[in-house]
Write a structure and sequence with these properties.
The chain has 191 residues and is of the alpha/beta class. The chain has a single domain, classed as Rossmann fold (3-Layer(aba) Sandwich). Helices cover 37% and strands 15% of the residues. It has a 6-stranded mixed sheet with strand order 2-3-4-1-5-6, sandwiched between helices. Strand 3, helix 5 and strand 4 form a beta-alpha-beta unit. Helix 2 packs across helix 3, helix 2 packs parallel to helix 4 and helix 4 packs parallel to helix 5. The longest helix has 14 residues.
């Protein structure tokens, strides 16, 4: 499979089908049992795992962004505005943020670090509908490539430019959900 610049690929399948393993292999956290992964020369990967343990709960969104990028406070606040941290929200302790706010902060931290390819492992699983919409707005502003493991059919319909599905040790590509629905049974999709 080839993931091209600007694509938004939904990685779908039932739990245990290998979605997280594939993301971790691409991110370089695991070695493949067979085959190989080739990353383009100018590709800078950012991986967002399901868990949010990489955040310092005593920091603030503003301090986390400024620790990664040499931005003035004004520029850092402007940047965080794109991830829906406005006004005094940039000074809120990370531990006091909701799960959805922390997900947006993880995304902001990846983007400010200069990545151009995001690997996201079920980032909206624990978000309510308004938080999902805000997270998608933040993703829509990202100009690079996104490979996202996800189960939410509405999100897939509104976001994905293609669908990949691991099945029986291979990875299958579909142009859209309609093509996937014709070729994969619901229990194989992870619906």
């Amino acid at each position: 499979m080839t993931l091209r610049h600007g694509e938004r690929i939904a990685l779908v399948g039932p739990n245990g089908s290998g979605k997280t393993t594939l993301l971790r292999i691409i991110a370089g956290e695991l070695q493949p049992n067979e085959g190989c992964v080739r990353i383009g020369a100018n590709v800078r990967i950012g991986y967002m795992p399901q868990e949010q343990e990489t955040l310092d709960m005593n920091s603030t969104p503003l301090s986390l962004v400024r620790a990664i990028a040499a931005l003035s406070e004004t520029k850092a606040r402007h940047f965080l505005h794109f991830f829906l941290f406005e006004g005094d929200a940039v000074f809120t302790r990370v531990g006091a943020l909701s799960y959805g706010e922390r997900a947006r902060l993880l995304l902001a931290r990846l983007v400010v670090s200069g990545v151009n390819c995001l690997l996201l492992d079920e980032p909206i699983n624990h978000l309510d509908i308004p938080s999902r919409a805000r997270f998608q707005s933040a993703l829509d502003a990202f100009p690079g490539t996104i490979l996202i493991a996800i189960h939410d059919r509405a999100f897939i319909d509104s976001f994905a430019t293609g669908i990949w599905s691991p099945r029986s040790g291979t990875l299958h590509a579909f142009l859209d959900r309609a093509e996937m629905d014709k070729n994969i049974q619901p229990y194989d999709r992870g619906d």
